[in-house]
Each structure stands twice: as structure tokens, then as C-alpha cells.
Amino acid sequence: MYEFSYHKVASVADAVAAMSAADDGKYVAGGQTMLPTMKHRLASPSDIIDLGGIAELSGITVAGDTLTIGAMTTHAAVAASAEVQAMIPSLAQLAGNIGDPAVRNRGTIGGSIANNDPAADYPAAVIALGATVHTNKREIAADDFFTGMFETALAEDEIITSIDFPKPLAAAYMKFENPASRYAIVGVCVAKTASEVRVGVTGATTCAHRGQRLEAVLNSDFSSAACDAVEIPLERMNSDIHASAEYRAHLVKVMAKRAVDACA
């Protein structure tokens, strides 16, 4: 690693102040991406602002039909939460299958969606469940949050504080995972509410997105068979050593069908 200054802050205000004073500062949540990136000298921030000491950013609460998860809540805590298991069991299952125990006990939901890795699991659920991302400055709808590969609507000094998830009638997340990393080669989350069906897709393209073609058929016929009629555009699909564009397009439909069946 290159030399940098480390700041362990105790409040969101202190974190923002430290970022304002830095030449090229970066916030760190669980550090599961930033630290390896620095180790390989792919990034060299002047300052690291550690959010781990901010108690107000952790925790899980329920108010009516809204589940709120603090940004610094770990994957392991989400997976083990009785509130999450009762409100949105598929979200607890998703969290419990991220990486390995070391990753789940350090990585955080806020860090994951702020990083927006193209193969991360949470973005698909945030999109499908129609979540709202709260920051120290504003609220951002799921549809507006993920903007590109490793890019979000967040400003450089903006901090995610919590995420609100409305309770669906049913939801399920299915992924075809890399056996080593458990990252999603393709992951699809399907959520059904009283008014609509939403589909979030991750791993297939350079950024998590709504599966609008799948939504169109599922809003008319909520059955796995309905997905067969959907044409997934190959030109948008990722292609790498793990899977070709054609295979990923096939997996999108297969995972969608499995998610729909799991919602039944």
C-alpha cells in the first residue's frame, strides 16, 4: 500500500468533516473492496475515513410494513435478524449466502451498495423491493441509485445512513454463483406487491438493473412459464471467463423462473 492517513470517526458529522479536509479521501465501511484495491495499488487515497465506529449507522428496525437496515449493519447481522427473517425472508437468505463467514462478518449492506460491484447481490434486492436509500443529505429511490459499473448517485462526500425496504407480498432471490467467490454470475430478485411485480438483475450486465421485459410478462401472468416468452438482449450481457453473453442471457430467465416459483 501507499502511505495514507487513517481516521476513526464517531459520527457522520465527523466523517464529513474529515472528508472535507482530505485531498483525496475515501470512506471505508467493511473494507472488503477498498483494502484489497489499495493492497494491489489500484487506488491510493490520501485519507481513509473509517465509518465502523459510528453506532447510529448500525441496526435493524421495523415500523409498520417498512424494514429499515442501518448502512453499517453486517451481512451476518442481516442474515441472523429475526426481523428480517419475518418481514423479508429472502433478504435474510441473500445476506447469508454472500461470500464466506469472514466476509459476512465484516462486509456491510451500505458498503456493498455504495461500491456497486456488477456481481454483488444486494443491488438486485434493493431494486426489486423498491427500496429507498437514505443518506446524510437526501433520500434516493432504488431506480435512481445505481448508475453504472461501480458508480452510484452518491456524491463524493455523501454517506449512506440506512435503507428502507417495504414489505412485499412475496419475494425471492436466486443466483447462479461463482463457486469460489459466491459472487453472482447472474442473480435475479423477484418481488410481488399489491400493485406490481418488480425484477432486479445483477451479474448479467455492467450494472444491476430492473428486468423490465420480465416485469412486463409477470405483471400479466405471474408464473415461471411466462418468462419463456421473454427475449433477453445479448448485446447488454457481460461475457468473460466465467460465462458467455449467451449463457448469461439464458441464466437470467432460469433464475427468474426459479425466483417466481419460490414466491409461490
Would you write up a description of this structure?
This protein folds into three domains: 5-50, Uridine Diphospho-n-acetylenolpyruvylglucosamine Reductase, domain 2, CATH 3.30.43; 55-166, Uridine Diphospho-n-acetylenolpyruvylglucosamine Reductase, domain 3 (2-Layer Sandwich), CATH 3.30.465.10; 170-263, CO dehydrogenase flavoprotein, C-terminal domain (Enolase-like, domain 1, 2-Layer Sandwich). Helices cover 33% and strands 25% of the residues. It has eleven helices and 14 strands. It has helices spanning 12-21, 34-39, 75-80, 82-87, 89-96, 101-106, 109-115, 122-128, 142-145, 212-218, 245-263, and strands at 5-8, 25-28, 47-50, 60-63, 66-70, 132-135, 139-141, 146-148, 151-152, 160-166, 170-177, 184-192, 197-202, 209-210. A hairpin with a 3-residue loop joins strand 6 (132-135) and strand 7. The radius of gyration is 18 Å and the shape is globular. The mean pLDDT is 96.
What does the overall shape look like? Answer: globular
Give the strand order, joined by hyphens, for the main sheet.
4-5-10-6-7
Task: Spell out the helices and strands N to C.
Answer: EHEHEEEHHHHHHEEHEEEEEEEHH
Unreliable stretches (pLDDT < 50, length at least 5) are: none
Over the alpha carbons, how many angstroms does the gyration radius reach? 18 Å
Task: Provide a compact summary of the structure.
The chain is α+β, with helices and mostly antiparallel strands.
Task: Please name the defining characteristics of this protein.
alpha+beta, Uridine Diphospho-n-acetylenolpyruvylglucosamine Reductase, domain 3, Enolase-like, domain 1, five-stranded antiparallel sheet, four-stranded antiparallel sheet
